[in-house]
Amino acid sequence: MSDNPIFKRTIHKHEVPSQFLPEGSRSIRVYLPPGFQQWISYPVIYCQDGEDFFNFGRIATHSQKLILEQGWDSFIIVGVDVDKKLRTSEYTPDGDRYSLYTRFFAEELIPWTESHYPVRDVPDQRLLIGDSLGGAVSVSLAVAYPTLFSRVVSLSGAFYDVYTAQIEQVSSLEYLKVWMLVGLQENEFATDRGTFDFVELNRNCKQLLDSKGAKSFYVEKDGEHKWGFWQNELPEALAAFLGPTPLFE
Fold first, then answer.
1. Which of 25, 105, 189, 204 is most buried when burial is the number of CB atoms within 10 A of its CB?
2. Closest to 150 measured CA to CA, from 219, 216, 223, 74
3. Distance (Å, rounded) from C-alpha 31 to C-alpha 44?
4. Domain with 157 in it: what CATH number?
5. Which of 1-10, 103-112, 115-124, 175-184 has the lowest mean pLDDT?
6. Residue 249 lies in a domain
7. What pLDDT does 8 receive?
8. InterPro entries, per this entry (predicted)?
9. What is the DSSP letter of 57?
10. Residue 55: how many other CB atoms lie within 10 Å
11. Domain that holds residue 129
């Protein structure tokens, strides 16, 4: 079966030009599903920490199996790389590069992807996904750009006060659907901003999102703040939006 081109897994790498980012571009990687056809339109997943999602989260491997072995409809994945030294500055609302990164994401990355690949261009066919700060900035993007994003997967989101303050400012999030996961052993995790109880952060954020009318599905289970935990939960997370019987329609 693996010799048949219809089952081939394809990953392309690109440099997306940017007028917002000082470097002038950002590296991305794009997973194309088995049997990809340019004339078919596909749902699309946008990953923060793109390199990590592909290398440590094995999101392309998971997706290939779900499509081939479990009969899921095909989708495209866009992983957006990040310089780890600049990650906090780009992903947190009080960071020096936050506005530059989020404007690049919404105003440059999305149009570039939609002009180069046959991805669907409506909010309920775009899924944002991220881990830790990446999960939090995914929610932040959906709050800031409601006409672009309405679906988010957050894996152990680092929902610091700067994120909840942003959520509190909006009157309604009835358009938003969020699948949230946190590990019960993440209750004392050291970050570059101090040590936090991620379980409490996620519980509080879920409650806040619900109070604004968002639809959320919240999961707590044994797990630490690392890819060994998140990787195993990815199929369930993706199934909520892209599986044969999704939680969120």
1. 105
2. 216
3. 10
4. 3.40.50.1820
5. 1-10
6. no
7. 67
8. AB_hydrolase_fold, Esterase-like, Mycobacterial_A85_antigen
9. S
10. 14
11. 5-242
